[in-house]
Write a structure and sequence with these properties.
Blueprint lengths: L2 H17 L9 H15 L3 H12 L6 E8 L2 E8 L3 E6 L9 H8 L5 E6 L1 H8 L8 E5 L5 E5 L10 H6 L3 H12 L7 H13 L3 H13 L7 H4 L7 H7 L3 H9 L9 H12 L5
Parallel strand pairs: 3-4, 4-5
Antiparallel strand pairs: 1-2, 2-3, 5-6
Length: about 280
């Protein structure tokens, strides 16, 4: 987002919050964030509320490498939790439709032997008895904000697909796997290099490829350490993880007074995203 438009959007957001009375007496952005979050949790349980439940209860940062909005086949999964395996977590909030959910779950199982769904109680109960998805973990978000688990995910490596995992990696990552399992990679144009890697990958056992797939995902380093992330206000932790700011930006985001936002251009960019990115969802 351009600095000028970011300034205008952040100023508009703060003005609206002030008109609603949420900004009254809020000395810092931390206080304002908590007020906004509590209002959403009571009146508008959108994607942000569910993401916070995932990060806070189902897959805290200490549980492994957490990736948001990863492409798997034709779908984008909300979370991938990577430790010694890959766990895909899909969110269906109070405001989401579920027409694409079966296709999404099928896609995720091609790269993740563990798949879970966090949704409303009605959505979870709808999928609980479907034979095709008996290995999928099912949880819903209670009225009090706690995650209620109907069943845990079952490990299902028989559905993994090597080419799907390859397509979820960056070029240097899938070429490194090809070299590790098949020997040196020839010098080729990018278009032919992809086809070469795909052809080799098709012959690799999916369980073996998954082991290297996990290694590549774990090798990606976030800018924020767990110690810094632990200081981020809980209501916006999922969004901050997605933005991946520097440590300095996180510190400034928490301490800056909302009445002085115009003096902090970097913080304005963060605040604009934190407060407005869900506006059109």
């Amino acid at each position: 987002m351009e600095p000028g438009s970011c300034n205008r959007a952040a100023s508009t957001a703060v003005s609206v919050l002030a008109e609603l009375g949420m900004a009254r007496g809020a000395g810092t952005m931390r206080t304002l964030m908590w007020r906004c979050y509590r209002w959403l949790a009571r009146h508008h349980r959108n994607d942000l509320i569910y993401r916070n439940a995932v990060v806070g209860q189902m897959a805290p940062p200490s549980s492994g490498r957490i990736m948001q909005e990863a492409m798997i086949n034709r779908s984008i999964v909300d979370y991938l939790v990577v430790s010694d395996s890959v766990h895909a977590i899909e969110i269906k909030s109070d405001l989401d439709g579920v027409s694409r959910l079966p296709a999404q779950l099928r896609d995720y199982r091609l790269a993740a032997p563990l798949v879970s769904l966090l949704g409303t109680q009605a959505t979870v109960e709808r999928f609980a008895e479907q034979q095709e998805f008996l290995t999928v973990g099912l949880s819903w978000l209670g009225d009090d904000g706690s995650v209620r688990t109907l069943r845990n995910p079952a490990y299902a490596p028989d559905l993994l697909d090597s080419v799907t995992m390859m397509r979820s990696l960056r070029q240097h990552e899938y070429l490194a796997i090809v070299e590790a399992l098949n020997g040196p990679v020839p010098t080729l144009p990018n278009t032919k290099l992809f086809r070469y890697a795909r052809d080799i990958t098709q012959s690799i056992d999916p369980v073996e490829y998954h082991r290297h797939f996990v290694g590549m995902l774990n090798s990606r380093k976030p800018r924020l350490s767990q110690s810094v992330l632990s200081r981020v206000p809980a209501p916006v932790k999922p969004t901050v993880m997605k933005i991946n700011p520097s440590r300095c930006e996180v510190d400034r985001l928490q301490s800056v007074s909302y009445t002085h936002l115009r003096a902090h251009e970097t913080v304005l960019d963060l605040v604009c995203r934190l407060l407005l990115e869900k506006k059109h969802n």
